[in-house]
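The following block was generated as part of the benchmark described in Methods. Ligand: phosphoric acid mono(formamide)ester.
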Amino acid sequence: MKHLLKLMDLSEQEIIELLNLADQLKYERAHGIAHPHLAGKTLGMIFQKASTRTRVSFETGMVQLGGYPLFLSSHDLQIGRGEPVQDTARVLSRYLDGIMIRTFAQQEVEDLAKYGSIPVINGLTDFCHPCQVLADLMTIREYKGSFDGLKMCYIGDGNNMANSLIVGGLKVGMSVSVACPADYQPDASVLEFANATGKFSMTESPVLAAENADVIFTDVWASMGQEGEAEKRRIAFNGYQVNDEVLSAAHSECMVQHCLPAHRGEEITEKVFEAHANEIFDEAENRLHAQKAVMVKVMG
Ligand code: CP
Ligand code: NVA
């Protein structure tokens, strides 16, 4: 594994190996066992969008691995003034040992990997959020023991989270159901992959999608960069809320996950969020462990 650009690029075995390593790093961290796998290495972290979890978990994760994280806001980089990504990639490859990037276009991440000579990790694009979904899969396995026979459900916008959850969930063997409005479906390439597995279903009914689900995911209705559409989206997603009615269709032990930040009263009710807060904040914690595993795999 040279990069983490999107989950579609990974085999089931590569995903499971990452999750196993993440579990091990989490165990070591909890037991005070140092793991300086990246001593002397530097990770550049380019942010073209805001972040709490991704920034802090990558930054502290790199320190825990003995390396050095460099926060690079696009406001302060020449890339923000139009320096081509091909040049940025070749320059940063001369200084750094790896790059994490959060940006808009998936192509920019792919180009960084293509023109640079160091590992690139996708910290969210408009297309996908692979690091988040590795943490999500880690959390599901932690709570459920294995992925065997599990049904994952996603309700809401067919966005970056939906795209990665569908691919990740199906790759590890879960069945996946999605409920989203007709105008807000996941990416066509993701649907093509998903439909070929025979374990995927999509509907416009959240209750139908949630039937017998073992884990339900949702995400914001307006992602970063879509702030101007927030009002229109509030109308379009009316009814696509994870609430008691949706949960009553699911398995009685159903988990609820949210990548955060959450908008209570929109995609999830306050009551459901708080009832599942432990799972949701374990999910947030697992960003740290899952991303440390990714960094060790690609930069170690
Ligand atoms: N879930 C997630 O990626 O959070 P941040 O936007 O805070 O990084
Ligand atoms: N879909 C959200 C996820 C945030 C972690 C966004 O892109 O803003």
